[in-house]
Design a protein that fits this description.
The protein is α+β, with helices and mostly antiparallel strands. It has two domains: about 110 residues, no CATH class; about 220 residues, Umud Fragment, subunit A. About 25% of the residues lie in helices and about 25% in strands. The protein has five helices and 22 strands. The strands form seven sheets. The protein has a seven-stranded antiparallel beta sheet. A four-stranded antiparallel beta sheet has the order 9-8-7-15, with no helix packed on it. Helix 2 packs antiparallel against helix 3 and helix 2 packs parallel to helix 4.
């Protein structure tokens, strides 16, 4: 047997797949982006040093300025080494053209980094400064979002059952009604308000009597309305109208049970009162409420009709017989159903966490509040 026949035939080289070609191009693009980012950061730091350190050695300053000039030319695609007319490089090979390859960019970035780590090392900022600056930017952005756009809120009691369970974490849209002055509560203030809440909105607001706590309830009455609540039915008379309207409701043939606690009173979990489930509908919106089978007794003189002042809204909890809301607010012994518009912090949008007495209630995560 000849040596030629004894040699194993080499396996044919497989042609690259479309996915392989795409991944190779993506890897080159990602590498160029990384090198460009490194060069940008190094150039920014060298410019800062040249601007602030006037006592630099002339030779070091000259080298730094030349490196910056070359880097800027390469980024702008004006580098003479990439011009085929000068005979020094061919842009088709991708090694000298900053648009088609990463060789020049890599060399330029490496030179800038060399200057920072060598002659300019004692003048550069400590690396920790970059992390601190990034942290400050992220913290400022998060603070801005919390102050003006979104704020998390935890449901502390069962006053909004069944819409919101005790322990639900929700996000509140603080931008929907206006721009509020952050961290003001006594009295609350707004820069500007550009819309009013709608009937049925679930809102977070600052309790109006003492301006000391955040409450969450459902808006029932708007400024200027008259509100009646009789036989488990809400009636409202809009400002300027003469005909009363009713919030449609119907009893649901479904079991009604829930676990309750009041975190502000450090209560343990316990079953809520035996209840009945209703659905209320207003226009195209609907939501569920509950009533105790044996409702609590109210004084005979307890009002069943309220007038909403022109700068206020009237709110109620969905757990109608276990909610301290506009019906029960008093000031100097007189009914004070007003929740000033200035006290509104925002509208509840969705549930993002829901720990209950038996663990996480997974089915409630990322559900909207309606």
């Amino acid at each position: 047997m000849s040596r030629r026949n004894s040699r194993k035939k080499s396996a044919p080289r497989e042609a690259p797949t479309r996915l392989g070609l795409w991944w190779a191009r993506f890897s080159r693009w990602r590498r160029r982006r990384r090198e460009l980012g490194e060069g940008k950061e190094a150039a920014k730091e060298i410019r800062r040093v040249l601007r602030r350190k006037t006592e630099l050695d002339p030779a070091v300053r000259r080298d730094a300025e030349n490196a910056l000039r070359v880097w800027d030319e390469m980024r702008a695609g004006k580098d003479g080494s990439a011009d085929p007319k000068n005979g020094s490089a061919d842009p088709k090979n991708g090694s000298a053209d900053p648009k088609n390859g990463s060789g020049d960019l890599h060399a330029g970035a490496a030179e800038l980094v060399r200057l920072l780590e060598g002659p300019l090392a004692e003048h550069r900022r400590h690396p920790a400064w970059g992390y601190a600056f990034s942290f400050l930017i992220a913290a400022s952005f998060a603070l801005f979002l919390r102050a003006f756009v979104f704020e998390p809120f935890r449901i502390p009691s069962g006053s909004m059952v069944p819409t919101l369970q005790v322990g639900d974490y929700i996000y509140v849209n603080k931008f929907v009604y206006g721009l509020r002055v952050p961290f003001t509560s006594d009295p609350p203030k707004h820069f500007v308000m550009w819309s009013l809440p709608e009937r049925g909105d679930v809102v977070v607001f600052i309790e109006p009597i003492h301006n000391g706590e955040d409450w969450i309830k459902r808006v029932i009455g708007l400024p200027g309305d008259r509100i009646r609540f009789r036989d488990r039915t809400i009636y409202y008379l809009p400002k300027g109208e003469t005909e009363w309207r009713a919030v449609k409701n119907r009893k649901l043939d479904e079991p009604c049970a829930y676990m309750d606690r009041n975190e502000k009173l450090n209560e343990d979990w316990h079953p809520g009162s035996p209840c009945e489930l209703y659905e209320e509908r207003l226009g195209k919106r609907s939501w569920r409420v509950i009533y105790d089978v044996a409702p609590r007794q109210l004084p005979l003189e307890f009002p069943t009709e309220w007038e909403v002042p022109g700068h206020c809204v009237f709110v109620m909890g969905d757990n109608r017989d276990n909610s301290e809301d506009s019906r029960f607010l008093t000031k100097d012994g007189q009914p004070a159903p007003c929740v000033p518009l200035e006290n509104l912090k925002g509208r509840a949008e969705f549930i993002w966490l829901s720990p209950g007495p038996d663990g996480q209630r997974w089915g409630r995560l990322f559900t909207g509040v309606r």
